[in-house]
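User: tokens in, sequence out, please.
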């Protein structure tokens, strides 16, 4: 059966830690528990304002976890230097606004082509797999290909927010097919829960799904290991075409 990787985003473990300014809960321990429960990788977003993950967390994750680290970052010189020093398995370039609660939309790869190109090249030269977080928009995907990024992560936020609007899912399905036609690897993420992940897992092009907020919230209810196992089961169900 088709195996879809689950990347667990542990940012919000750090959100809870930082709410009290103490050392717990530890995002690295959460990453280790998620991996033991079946996570195929760990995602962490070092934001410019360090509102959740901090620099030391990224170093500790890289040193201690046994599965790939997917480092989410904005295309800034500061973050590039950290990525090159840390050498994570992958970097996912995301847009970032200080005022946003979470990553609101995909990267504008078309408008930001000149700015993004040197970041993608420097990361790739360092042997880091680059993915671009983009909305399901064919022109954006075409530009991702032109810029030489091997992976795109399709932003599923609009789909997750408007489940009754079938156009949103159709856009993702079309974009996933286009991603494969371009020879790019297709990931998906944002706003996914156990209730809406199966149709995304049912897209045959999707090889990795990244989920954070729902899993960390669910961890409060059932524990992180159980939350990861439940999500893996639902992804497997979706991949079997049982959405
Ligand atoms: N993928 C990317 C690129 C993201 O920026 C985020 C949010 O940090 C996620 C996936 C996970 O989104 P959520 O926390 O809504 O599951």
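Assistant: Sequence out:
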């Amino acid at each position: 059966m088709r195996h879809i990787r689950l990347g667990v985003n542990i940012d919000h473990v750090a959100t809870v830690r930082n709410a009290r300014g103490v050392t717990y809960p530890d995002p690295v321990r959460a990453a280790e528990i998620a991996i033991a429960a079946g996570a195929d990788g760990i995602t962490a977003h070092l934001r410019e304002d360090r509102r959740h993950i901090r620099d030391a967390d990224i170093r500790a994750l890289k040193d201690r976890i046994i599965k790939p680290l997917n480092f989410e970052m904005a295309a800034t010189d500061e973050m590039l230097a950290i990525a090159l020093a840390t050498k994570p398995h992958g970097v996912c370039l995301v847009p970032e606004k200080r005022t946003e609660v979470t990553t609101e939309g995909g990267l504008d790869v078309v408008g930001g082509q000149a700015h993004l190109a040197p970041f993608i090249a420097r990361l790739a030269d360092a042997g880091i797999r680059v993915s671009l977080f983009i909305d399901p928009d064919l022109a954006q995907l075409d530009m991702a290909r032109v810029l030489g990024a091997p992976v795109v992560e399709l932003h599923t936020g609009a789909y997750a927010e408007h489940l009754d609007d079938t156009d949103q899912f159709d856009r993702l399905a079309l974009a996933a097919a286009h991603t494969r036609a371009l020879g790019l690897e297709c990931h998906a993420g944002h706003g996914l829960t156990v209730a809406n992940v199966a149709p995304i897992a049912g897209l045959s092009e999707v090889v990795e799904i990244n989920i954070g907020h729902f899993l960390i919230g669910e961890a409060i209810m059932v524990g992180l290991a159980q939350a990861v196992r439940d999500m893996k089961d639902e992804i497997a169900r979706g991949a079997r075409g049982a959405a």
